[in-house]
Amino acid sequence: MTNEEVADLVKQATGIEQVFVKSEGTHYQVIAVDDQFETMSRVKRQQMISSPLSKQIADGTIHALSVKTFSNAQWQREKLFNQ
Question: Rounded distance, CA 44 to CA 26, Å?
């Protein structure tokens, strides 16, 4: 499964426009940016991203999934911090 396919699954299921995916083998890292995360708990954020990928997780296509979520303001701070 390509990074673009993973991003598209998440985008289609959630309506999130900014989804970044990196992978190494069957290990995927997803970063999602959207203001709807501001009012969500960390668990709800994780569920929102992993739920559209549950079939791929169950069949082993995705063995490990790391999820990071940010509001737009948090993402701007994160990008500045990591420059």
Answer: 24
Amino acid at 23: S
> Longest Cα pair distance anywhere in the chain, in angstroms?
38
Residue 46 · residue 67 · CB < 8 Å = yes
| Segment 22-54, tens digit of pLDDT | 999 999 999 999 999 999 999 999 999 999 999
pTM: 0.91
Domains, the chain, in order of start with CATH, read 3-81 (3.30.300.90)
CA dihedral sign of residues 14, 4, 75, 49: positive
CB atoms within 10 A of CB 53: 20
User: What CA–CA distance (Å, rounded) separates 35 from 50?
Assistant: 18
